[in-house]
Amino acid sequence: MNKNFLLKSGLVLAVLSSTLVAASLKGRVFEDTNRNNIYDKAIDLPLKNVLVSVVDAQGKTVQVKTNKYGVYTAKSISTGVATITIDETTLPGVNPVQVVGLNPSTKNVVSGKQNWAGKDGFTFDILTGTVCGDLFLDGKNDTDPTNPQSSITYNNVFNKGEEIANATVSIIDSRGNEHNATSNINGRYCVEKVAVGTATINVYANNVYSCWISFFTNNNDSNHIDVVHINKINEAPVGKALLVCP
Question: Which residues contact 244 (CB under 8 A, 6 or more apart)?
């Protein structure tokens, strides 16, 4: 057999084997929640279940989804230049704008090391709603109907005259933003532009009652609300306070 042929064949096989080495590629997709165009681990939100397509140097396409940390891993791809494309239709927000990274992007994949595609950050239109609720002091206007002079009873029901006015209401929305309001003379409060998602409601009324001890709602003692109605009122569970005074 011709030695030149064998030599050339060997070179061809060497080149092919170098491009067919299996490798992996990782990257991260996140929401730039504070809109500063960089990734802040403690602030920005990972985006899960985002579809990412990787086309390797041999033209093979590998599709993967991001995990709960916003990280995707494409395995068994060939070494060489790979093209990474994020399917923006699978992003969870409305009107995504990429502020970190490029889409699509390329990465030279090599064997024997961790290949990192980088980070892709997006901002979205923030959907919000209004949260309203009512506060009352259980027992303030309750009596035993069989003995009007008896000690105060707690009936877990709002009665006229039990309204809590001038209490401070703090709502932490799903994006970590705090919104504050003060209850009116009817114990009613409303907070606008609360991000869609689960929000936490805290009430402070130490400035109203010196022996105030606790606040909770009539909804399984939970102080959370799911904000789902966009640009509309989301009614919070009725808030109840208990007092124990010496």
Answer: 211, 213
- Angstrom distance (rounded) from CA 205 to CA 191: 17
- Start-to-end CA distance of the chain, whole Å, equals 106
- Read off the pTM: 0.58
The full set of domain ranges for the chain reads 22-125, 128-243
CATH 2.60.40.10 applies to domain 128-243: yes
Report pLDDT digits (tens) over 187-246.
Answer: 899 999 998 888 988 887 766 554 443 455 544 445 788 888 888 889 887 776 655 444
pLDDT of the residue at 92: 86
CA 133 remoteness from chain centre: 24
Reduced to 3 states (helix: H, G, I; strand: E, B; else coil), residue 150 is: coil
β-strand 239-243 against 128-137: which pairing, if any?
parallel
Which residues are CB-contacts of 97 (< 8 A; sequence separation ≥ 6)? 122, 123, 124
Here the tokens at position 61 are 């396409």
Can you state the percent helix, strand and coil of the chain, rounding each to 5?
Answer: 10, 50, 45
CATH 2.60.40.10 fits 22-125, yes or no: yes
